[in-house]
């Protein structure tokens, strides 16, 4: 059945019929947390994905609706007091901005990856790893719904001067032309699939017309299949979008549709399955990725179910990420030890066809670091780590070791094993970041 896209935010969410049965204190929690963390959902998520009979523990409810535990208790109290006393909007906004700035809004040294062409910075692009250039089209800087764990939230709250956005795709093309090492253009956001077909077509056509010989793959990073599959079924420009995908594959360029899914529930509706069929029929491949999130998918079964279902629908599992050190990390964070156990216990239950997935991986300043495992070497318990991706390609696939720390949530919590002062890449990384 075609569906008309209806957005819910902190302003109108109480209109959602299912909220009649939601406890009053939960509504207040939503209001308080939403004053700091932006919140947006839509009628597909509300009507087809959330299990309202069990909403308090429902992974999709937690994925879209702010939860009390997502703020530090003292931050929560500060905002609650302002809201309970009907403070004016500017006071609330000021207090919220102070808290936001304490939540590490710019992780992973992203400001170091801004490429330059003809003496000009391409602020809507990133080039961190040799083969892949990231492009953030201006009109793709929002999403069909917001994930409560999202590290990109600074750009949704209107506070971000660094907002990676750029109208001009031509500079990106010029840049790729003189960088023969780039084989992949990754269009990301926000979610580029919030763009209408006309705008998307403008970007894609210009790239295709440039006929860059070394460009092999266009990737589109998107959560639209999970949040709004009607984008490919009944939106007014759904057919046009699919034609754009065909145009890419007909030009001999691989279209890798990088789909973000967090839970098997997102793969179960008729709408998502129909959308997957339509996208695959354009010749695109669909690869999947997700962070590992406490309260949403922190069990090996959640992952083996999800990967198995993805393969059944013709998708290729690609990455499991460790939740980043920003926003509500204390709520969503899973220790590196546990992340590895969850990965391993899911990975060993799935077909080899699904074992294309890699992780658990931390996207951090030096690269994508995978927790290969925990073991003991000469009496010392260690994490075995390796780069899946590195700022220097020579770092990739070289095992290195950190002291075992059962509480570690992120690479910052790790120290080199065997009494070493630093990890093998640190000196070189420091020099790179000075550039
Ligand atoms: C993950 C990522 C890529 C893509 O890396 P692949 O290993 O090719 O998937 C590119 N750029 C950045 C900044 C990334 O984080
Ligand atoms: S879809 Fe992606 S960019 Fe959008 S809110 Fe979710 S994680 Fe963030």
The helical percent reads 25-40%
Q: Which CATH architecture of the largest domain is right?
A: Alpha-Beta Barrel
What would CATH call the class of the largest domain? Alpha Beta
- Ions and ligands: pyridoxal-5'-phosphate, iron/sulfur cluster
- Coarse structural class: alpha/beta
Overall spatial form: globular
What CATH calls the topology of the largest domain is: TIM Barrel
| CATH superfamily caption of the largest domain | Aldolase class I
Please indicate the percent range of residues in DSSP E strands (runs of 2 or more). Answer: 15-25%
Unreliable stretches covering 5 or more consecutive residues: 159-166
Q: Write out the strand line-up for the largest beta sheet, numbering strands in chain order.
A: 5-6-7-8-9-10-11-12-13-14-15
Average residue pLDDT: 92
Q: Provide a count of the helices.
A: 14
What is the end-to-end distance?
A: 54 Å
Largest pleated sheet: 11 strands, mixed
Concise summary:
This is KamA family protein. The chain has 435 residues and is an alpha/beta fold.
List the helices and strands and how they pair.
Blueprint: E1 7-9, H1 24-34, E2 40-42, H2 43-49, H3 59-64, H4 73-84, H5 89-101, E3 116-117, E4 120-121, E5 125-129, E6 132-135, H6 169-177, E7 184-187, H7 197-209, E8 217-222, H8 224-227, H9 238-250, E9 254-260, H10 270-281, E10 285-292, H11 300-312, E11 316-322, H12 329-332, H13 336-347, E12 358-364, E13 367-377, E14 380-390, E15 400-403, H14 426-434
Bound molecules: pyridoxal-5'-phosphate (PLP) and iron/sulfur cluster (SF4).
């Amino acid at each position: 059945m075609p569906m008309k896209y209806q957005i819910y935010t902190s302003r109108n969410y109480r209109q959602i019929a299912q909220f009649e049965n939601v406890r009053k204190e939960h509504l207040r929690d939503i209001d308080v947390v939403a004053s700091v963390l932006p919140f947006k959902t839509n009628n597909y998520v509300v009507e087809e994905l959330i299990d309202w009979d069990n909403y308090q523990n429902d992974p999709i409810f937690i994925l879209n609706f702010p939860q009390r535990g997502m703020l530090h208790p003292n931050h929560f109290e500060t905002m609650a007091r302002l809201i309970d006393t009907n403070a004016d909007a500017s006071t609330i906004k000021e207090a919220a901005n102070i808290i936001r700035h304490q939540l590490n809004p710019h992780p992973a040294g992203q400001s170091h990856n801004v490429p330059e062409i003809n003496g000009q910075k391409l602020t809507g692009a990133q080039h961190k790893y040799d083969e892949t250039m990231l492009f953030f089209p201006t009109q793709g800087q929002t999403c069909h719904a917001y994930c409560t764990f999202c590290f990109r939230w600074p750009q949704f709250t209107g506070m971000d001067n660094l907002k990676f956005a750029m109208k001009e795709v031509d500079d990106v093309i010029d840049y790729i032309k003189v960088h023969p090492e780039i084989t992949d253009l990754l269009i990301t956001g926000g979610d580029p699939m919030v763009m209408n077909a006309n705008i998307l077509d403008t970007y894609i056509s210009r790239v295709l017309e440039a006929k860059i010989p070394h460009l092999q793959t266009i990737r589109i990073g998107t959560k639209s299949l999970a949040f709004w599959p009607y984008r490919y079924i009944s939106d007014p420009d759904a057919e046009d979008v699919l034609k754009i995908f065909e145009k890419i594959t007909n030009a001999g360029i691989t279209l890798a549709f990088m789909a973000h899914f967090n839970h098997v529930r997102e793969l179960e509706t008729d709408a998502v399955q129909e959308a997957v069929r339509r996208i695959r029929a354009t010749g695109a491949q669909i690869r999947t990725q997700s962070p590992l999130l406490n309260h949403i998918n922190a069990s090996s079964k959640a992952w083996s179910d999800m990967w198995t279902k993805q393969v059944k629908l013709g998708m290729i599992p690609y990455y499991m990420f460790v939740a980043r050190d920003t926003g509500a990390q204390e709520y969503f964070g899973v220790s590196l030890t546990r992340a590895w156990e969850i990965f391993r216990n899911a990975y060993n239950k799935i077909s080899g066809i699904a074992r294309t997935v890699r992780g658990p991986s931390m996207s951090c300043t030096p690269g994508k670091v995978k927790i290969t495992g925990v073991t003991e070497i000469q009496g010392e318990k260690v994490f075995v780590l390796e780069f899946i991706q590195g700022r220097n390609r020579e770092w990739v696939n070289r095992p290195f070791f950190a002291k075992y720390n059962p509480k570690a949530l992120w690479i910052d919590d790790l120290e080199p094993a065997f009494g070493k002062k630093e990890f093998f890449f640190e000196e070189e990384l420091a020099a790179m970041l000075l550039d």
